Amino acid sequence: MASSVVDRKFLGKLAKEVEPENPLLSSILYKLLGLSHQLSDLLVKARKQRKLGSDSAEDGTQNVSTHILWLAREGLVMLEQYVLPMVANSGALKVLAYKLRASLYHVIVLFHNQPPVSARYIATPEPTPARLDKGKGIATDDDFLEASPAMQQRSPYEGGPVAPPPGFGPKPPGAFLLPVGDYLPTAHRYFREAVNLADKHLWGSHSLRLSIKTEYSAFLYDCAHDEEASRRVARKTINEVYEATEGIDNDMFQDACELVTVLGRMMKRGQPPSNRSKASSPGTVIVGGQQQPTKQQQQQTEKESIRDHSPFEELETPTTGVHHPSSEAHPGFI
C-alpha cells in the first residue's frame, strides 16, 4: 500500500485537519495510517525472505503473504466504504484516497494475481511429505502386488496420474481472503485515475504527486511489464518538476528531491550501461515550454566538447544519513 513516508505524512496531516468537522473520517484515516505502518513492515519482511530463497523460509513467506493480503483487503474496505464517499469535494485528500486504493491493488497484483505477474511472487503450497511405514499396518492385496515384480507390469493402455479438471486444482493460499483472478487491469485503471487527479489538483513539484508518479512507474515496470512506458512516466515527471514555479516548504522540497532521485534511477532501469546516458534527458532543461541549455552544456560548448548531461544528475547522489521514503518497502521495489 502507501508504504512510503510521504503518503504517511499526508495521512496524518489530513486526518488531523478533518477531525473537527468529520471525526468519523479522521478516525478512519488514522486507522489507515496504522495499517500502512504494519503493511510497510510486512513488505520489508517479505522482501528479505524472498531474497533468502531457502526451503526453511517458505512457511514464513506464505504466512507473511497471507497477512499482507488480509491488510490490503481491510484497507480497501475502509477506503471504498468510508473514505471515498466522503472526499468527493476535497482536493489533496481525494488524490490521496485514490492513490491509496491504487497502491492496495498494486500489492494484490504482486502477491495474489492470477496469472502471476512475476515468478518471484508465485506462492505454491508445499507438498505433504509421505509418512514412514513402520510395518505395523494391516496387510492388503496391494502389498503383495508391490512385492511381486511380475505383478508390477502394467498394461500399455493403463495411464499414469491424471491431473484435476480445470477449476479443481490447488488454490493459492490467499484464496479464502480474496477471489482468485486477474487484478492487473483494475489496478492499472485506478492508477490512471489517481494520476489524472494529481495532474488536476496538484502542481508538478508536489511530493504527493511525485509519490503517485513514482509508484505508477514502478507498477508499469514490475507488473504491466511496459518498460518504455515506465521510463517515459519517470522522464515526464522530472520535466514537470523543473517546470513548476510554485513555492514549497523545506520538508516538501526534501521529499521532492528524494523522489526525483528515485525517478532518475527508474529512467535508466532495465537498460544496458551503454544506453543509460542516452536514457537521461539531454543537456537541456525545459522551462516554460522552451528548451534552455544548462550551465555545464554552455561551458562544454565553449570548449567544443559537448556531452550528454542529465538534468537531475546533481540529485542522484543521496545525502549521507538522509532517509529515502519512496524506496522503503515500496511495492514496486520488492
From TrEMBL:
Residues 290-300 have a biased composition (Low complexity). It comes from the Eukaryota. Residues 272-283 have a biased composition (Polar residues). Residues 301-312 have a biased composition (Basic and acidic residues). Coiled coil: none annotated. Residues 268-334 are annotated as: Disordered. Gene3D superfamilies: 14-3-3 domain (1.20.190.20). This is 14-3-3 domain-containing protein. It comes from Coniella lustricola.
